[in-house]
Structure formats: C-alpha cells, structure tokens
Amino acid sequence: MGISPSAVLGLLTGLLGDSMAGSGDYLKKHTEALVKDVGIEAACELAGKSKATLGRYYSTAAEHGDRFMPIDTVAAIEAAARYPHVTSALAELSGHTITAGSEGRNAPSGGVNSDVIALSQRFAMLMAEYQQSIEDGIITVNEAKRLLRETLALQQVLVDMKLHLEDETTVGTLD
Predict the structure, then answer these.
(1) What mean pLDDT do residues 52-58 have?
(2) Domain shared by 51 and 132, yes or no
C-alpha cells in the first residue's frame, strides 16, 4: 500500500516545525506538474483514478487542503514522467536533493526541440516558485533555496541545449 504524502508531510512538519509552512501548497503544485507532465488522461489510466480524483489531489481549495496523492499513485505516474516532480518536492522539503543525469530512464531523447520544451517547462516552474515565494512580500531562506534549485535546474537545461546546438551545427541540421 505505501505511505501517503500527508503522512510524510506530517512527519516532516514534526521534524522541521514552522519551516514547513506552505509545504502543502508546494506539494500540490508539484502534484499538478506531475499530472500535466504525463497528461491527465495518461495519469488517470496509470493511477486507475478519475480526473476528478486526480484534480482533488492538487486542488488548493480548502475542502481538499488535506488531500494528497498516495505514494503508490505518485510512483506509478512518475514512472511515466520525464521528471520526478513529487519525489523531488518531498526531497527539497526535507533538505535533500535528487540528482539524475541525462542518462535517466525517462530522459527525453534529446535534440534542440526537446530542449526548448524542457526550457519552457523549467522556466514555468521557476516562475511558479517565484510567485509562490513573493506572495507575502518576503522571500524566506527556504524559499530562496528552492528558487536557487529551480535556477540551477534551468541552467542545466540551458547547458544541455547549448551542447545539442553545438552537436547539431557540426552535423548541419536541426531536429
């Protein structure tokens, strides 16, 4: 069966105290990113759940505030995703990082077009993180660390894109 994200969140809140404020919204944002990464229809099929149920997992409405996607469902959807959105968010909330090289099993096949897509997705994640961080007018240390991680991830996409462009210019065509 597995442990639910709400149980993990409760454990992390107990360990980290007030530094976990807003982590529920953070997990919900990454849950939504995960579902959108694979597509809502595919996510429903992988999870064996309806669109409405998946939507409740990332809804920020008060009545769904304590609802989180079960870990086994996260695992099933992340297996098809290009990035482990929820796993990464849980790691970040506990002060850890996840590192995956370009050889990751769900890594895109490469090329400039894939890089442009990855760049726009990463930039959107950075902007979403910034919007959430600046919402109260103050960027806390934890929020700054999350912004830095998103910036570093964006930088990695740019480096990959540069390398692909260099490869493509030696071949003479873009994909």
Answers:
(1) 94
(2) no
